[in-house]
Each structure stands twice: as C-alpha cells, then as structure tokens.
C-alpha cells in the first residue's frame, strides 16, 4: 500500500512516517517500477506500535531496539518504568516541598524569611534521589527473562519471581549492584548485542542432545585455546572481569537462584544440565585448565566457579564486538 493510505490508517503524518524510515524504525520495500515505498501490513502494525510507545514517551532509540529485537522488550520496559518511578518519587517529594513553602510563607515576604522557609522545605536533590533508588528487577530480567520466553504464567511463578527480586535487594555479595553499575555504562546498542548474542547461545545450548553436548565440549576446548592466544580478548576479560564477568559467573552459579529459576523455566533447567555436562568434559582437560590459570590469573577462579568460568571465557569471542 502507498504512504497516503498508511497515513490514513495510522493517523500518522506522511512527514513523520518518512522520519521513522530515516531513523531506521521501519524498513518498507521500495517498488522498483516507480521508486515509491510499498508498505505491508507489518509496517502498518509497527507504525501503530511506534505511535503507542511515543504516547508513553519512550525514546526513539529504545523503540528502535524493541522493534529490531522484541526479546529485549521486558528489559527496556522495566528500565523505563524504573526511570518513571524515580521521576514520580522525586516529583512527589518536590510537590511536598513546594506545598510547604506555599503554606509557610508569611504575608510580608522579604529575603530573610523567604530564605528561612525554603531552607526548611527539604527540597530534594534530583540527582541524589535517582542515585539512591536501586531497582534490581532490571538485572533479574537481564539475567533470566530470556529463559522465560512466554513470561510469568501463574501465581506460583509470580511468587518465585518476587522472591528472586527480594534476594537481589538483599544481596550481600554486591554482585547485583556491580552488574547494575556496569550495564548503566552501556548504550542501547551494546545492551541489544548482549541480549541477542546471549539468547542465541542459550537457545543453542538448550537444544543439544548428548552427542551435541560432546561435540560442543570439543568445540569449546578449541575456542578456549584460540582465545588464550588472542591478546585483545584476554585484555577484555581482565578489564571487565570484576565488573561484569565475575558477577555474572557467581549469579548464574548460585545454587539458591538456580533452584528458583528451574521451577519457573524448563528452558533454564535444560540449559544448566547441558552446560554442566559440557563444561565437566572440558574441565577434564587438565593441561588446558592449567594454561587458563597461568594466562588469566588472578582474573579466574576455576576451583570455585569452573563450569561458569569455562563457559564465559569460551564464549568471549561472541561478545568481543561490544567493547
């Protein structure tokens, strides 16, 4: 269909439709005969979705990545909701402060009594208010939402998910906070890359049968050997070990958290089973494990987190482009 018809269907101006095309939010085909855009029903639906998200004031960059990779939606919506809640709490405190000033100002206002009233109003510092409001549900979604493609299905799963978020808030290791700080340094495209690459990898690992696990173990050994010869990958590992890889490793290796997630997601249960089998085979290669320890020490703990560390370093070449 032509752009005029699309504009009528969506109530979006032709100018804005062209803008969304230029921004890469939609990519309609071009009719080779006349050079005009030829819109399909999918593009119409995308435009309607863009309009709804814009009504909610989501940034265009966020909408672009959601359209490109729908599996990231829960993360981005959680992130945006956290931002809205931060703004709401700040505005509520600010309203309270302004009301205080309004109701405590004397009839005759001069600088001295104005200064005194404003000083007593407890006007919030927006930057401090935002920094003090931590929401680790963003991190739990980043870590585990990809294992729950159909979302939370019942009240019991909702209870378990709430328990995970509570454990994140009560985390004494600081891993959730460290990972949260790291993710805040990434832009939207880097987060999308993490989501996309990791989801493809998890989907691959879940689909392995016993023979596939054995073949992947051999492949993982070769990837580790290759990575140990790549100075750039070793640099990335060491640079991000304490801020990203180690917190990830410890959280994924947490028996307490694993026991909860497997009750929600058969997908995660199968992933853990297959990866543990694969990494136990790789771990039998003592020569390779010694080489890892000698090359990466002290940025490695094969004794306590050998399965997760093997998997993380072996997968490093799939995420190197985000650095």
Describe the structure.
- It is a single chain.
- The chain has helices at 3-10, 14-22, 41-55, 60-68, 73-104, 111-119, 126-131, 137-144, 155-169, 175-183, 188-206, 210-227, 231-252, 255-264, 266-283, 286-296, 302-314; strands at residues 29-30, 37-38.
- It is mostly helical and 323 residues long.
- The protein has 3 domains: 3-55, Multidrug-efflux Transporter Regulator, Chain: A, Domain 2 (Orthogonal Bundle); 71-133; 138-322, no CATH class.
- A two-stranded antiparallel sheet has the order 1-2.
- Helix 10 (175-183) crosses helix 13, helix 12 packs across helix 17 (302-314) and helix 14 packs across helix 15.
- It is globular, with a radius of gyration of 25 Å.
- The model is unreliable at 319-323 (pLDDT under 50).
- InterPro entries: DNA-bd_dom_put_sf (IPR009061), MerR-type_HTH_dom (IPR000551), MerR_fam (IPR047057).
- Keywords: DNA-binding, Transcription, Transcription regulation.
- This is MerR family transcriptional regulator.
- Residues 1-69 form the HTH merR-type domain.
- Pfam families: MerR_1.
Summarize this, please?
This protein has 323 residues and is mainly alpha-helical. The chain is built from 17 helices and 2 strands. The protein folds into 3 domains: 3-55, Multidrug-efflux Transporter Regulator, Chain: A, Domain 2; 71-133; 138-322, no CATH class.
Question: What's the number of domains?
Answer: 3
Question: In what order do the strands lie side by side in the largest sheet?
Answer: 1-2
Shape: globular
**Total helix count?**
17
Keywords: DNA-binding, Transcription, Transcription regulation
InterPro entries: DNA-bd_dom_put_sf (IPR009061), MerR-type_HTH_dom (IPR000551), MerR_fam (IPR047057)
Domain HTH merR-type: 1-69
Pfam family, one: MerR_1
């Amino acid at each position: 269909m032509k752009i005029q018809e699309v504009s009528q269907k969506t109530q979006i101006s032709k100018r804005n439709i062209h803008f969304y095309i230029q921004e890469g939010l939609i990519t309609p085909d071009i009719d080779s005969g006349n050079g005009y855009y030829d819109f399909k029903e999918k593009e119409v639906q995308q435009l309607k979705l863009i309009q709804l998200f814009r009504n909610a004031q989501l940034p265009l960059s966020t909408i672009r990545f959601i359209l490109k990779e729908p599996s990231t939606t829960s993360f981005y919506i959680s992130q945006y909701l956290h931002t809205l809640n931060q703004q709401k709490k700040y505005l509520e405190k600010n309203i309270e402060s302004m009301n205080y000033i309004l109701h405590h100002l004397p009839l005759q206002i001069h600088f001295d009594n104005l200064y005194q009233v404003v000083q007593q109003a407890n006007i919030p510092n927006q930057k401090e208010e935002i920094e003090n409001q931590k929401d680790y549900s963003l991190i739990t979604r980043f870590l585990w939402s990809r294992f729950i493609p159909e979302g939370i299905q019942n009240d019991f799963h909702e209870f378990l998910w709430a328990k995970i978020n509570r454990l994140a808030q009560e985390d004494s290791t600081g891993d959730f906070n460290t990972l949260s700080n790291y993710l805040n340094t990434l832009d939207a495209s880097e987060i999308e890359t993490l989501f996309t690459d990791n989801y493809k990898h998890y989907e691959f690992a879940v689909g392995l049968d016993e023979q596939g696990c054995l073949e992947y173990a051999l492949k993982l050994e070769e990837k580790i050997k290759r990575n140990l010869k790549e100075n750039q990958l070793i640099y990335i590992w060491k640079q991000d070990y304490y801020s990203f890889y180690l917190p990830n490793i410890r959280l994924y290796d947490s028996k307490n958290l694993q026991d909860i997630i497997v009750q929600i997601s058969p997908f995660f249960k199968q992933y853990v089973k297959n990866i543990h089998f694969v990494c136990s085979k790789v771990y039998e290669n003592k020569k390779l494990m010694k080489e890892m320890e000698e090359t990466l020490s002290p940025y490695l703990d094969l004794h306590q987190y050998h399965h997760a560390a093997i998997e993380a370093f072996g997968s490093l070449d799939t995420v190197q482009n985000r650095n």
